[in-house]
Amino acid sequence: MVIRKYKESDCVEMAKLFYETVHNVNAADYNKEQLDAWATGNVDVKKWNDSFLEHYTVVAEQDNKIIGFGDIDDTGYLDRLYVHKDYQRCGVAKMMCDELEKSFNKIVTHASITALPFFKNRGYKIIKEQTVIRNGVELTNYIMEKRVKTLYLIGGTMGVGKTSVSQSLKKKLDKSVFLDGDWCWDSHPFQVNDETKNMVLDNICYLLNNLIKCSVYEHIIFCWVMHEQKIIDDIISNLNTEECRIVCISLTCEEKELIKRLKRDVELGKRTDNVIGRSIERISMYDTLNTIKIDTTNMTVGEISDKILEIVS
């Protein structure tokens, strides 16, 4: 199964899927009069196509057959979500929703009685039950809302400015919280071995999961060196991110600029001079990571945090 973007040539097949889904799947919760009013079998294909093109619309396809579709507008209103009657409870709706929801912090939908358990399981809350009129017939549905948290994973070599940028970002985002990975193994003497590596990852994931779970926060900002893809993958794989979108960013800069920043930190007593060589060695490692790269050379802390906000929005 693949999730792909909508094409105009999909519309007729999607209209047929819509009719069959409503009259089979939703028949468990609505009577025949309601089903006939909801899905008449006479879809205005041009009107549907125009709305699909205006919205972000995805199609689930298997063996060259459309087995589901969904669309969301630019305000975060999840308009339609339908899965073929023969592919119910196969994860199709979940995969489509994962794609549709990923760019929004807030999503609203009008869920049928049939779809209510699915959306509840995805973290949607009922705002109110309502009765709508379709072709003169009353149907019950539910206005539902989901708040999606954003987890910012900000990596970069020592001295590139991760902590300062993260603190700046925290102040610009409402309901935000910041965790620096180095706080999770700040010790004297500082020791790096297999035991402490495992410990710090456990500490980081435990704290991040608690921050994600806490209803007070909508933006969780985490920074650490994260110079290897495995480190990023290990952290993400141990987090509960079903109601959270993840933005992975690597801060980089030119070697000359990095040396300048590190020397300033050394002069201020924030670092020892042996960090300079180790930090420079890691610059190129970020090129291969599956992250958004931001070259921070000649940028202020505020400009960098503004750039992150621009990327996320």
How many separate domains make up the residues?
Answer: 2
CATH architecture of the largest domain: 3-Layer(aba) Sandwich
Count of helical regions: 11
Q: Note the overall shape.
A: elongated
Strand order of the largest sheet: 1-2-3-4-5-7-6
CATH homology superfamily of the largest domain: P-loop containing nucleotide triphosphate hydrolases
- How much is the radius of gyration in Å? 24 Å
Unreliable stretches covering 5 or more consecutive residues: none
Q: Averaged pLDDT, please? A: 95
Which features would summarize this protein structure in a list?
313 residues, alpha/beta, Aminopeptidase, Rossmann fold, 2 domains, seven-stranded mixed sheet, five-stranded parallel sheet, 11 helices, 38% helix, 27% strand
Furnish the topology, listing elements before pairings:
Layout: E1 2-5, H1 11-24, H2 32-38, H3 45-54, E2 56-62, E3 65-72, E4 77-83, H4 92-101, E5 106-112, H5 116-121, E6 125-134, E7 137-147, E8 149-156, H6 162-172, E9 176-180, H7 194-213, E10 219-224, H8 229-237, E11 244-252, H9 255-267, H10 275-282, E12 292-295, H11 301-312
Parallel strand pairs: 4-5, 8-10, 8-11, 9-10, 11-12
Antiparallel strand pairs: 1-2, 2-3, 3-4, 5-7, 6-7
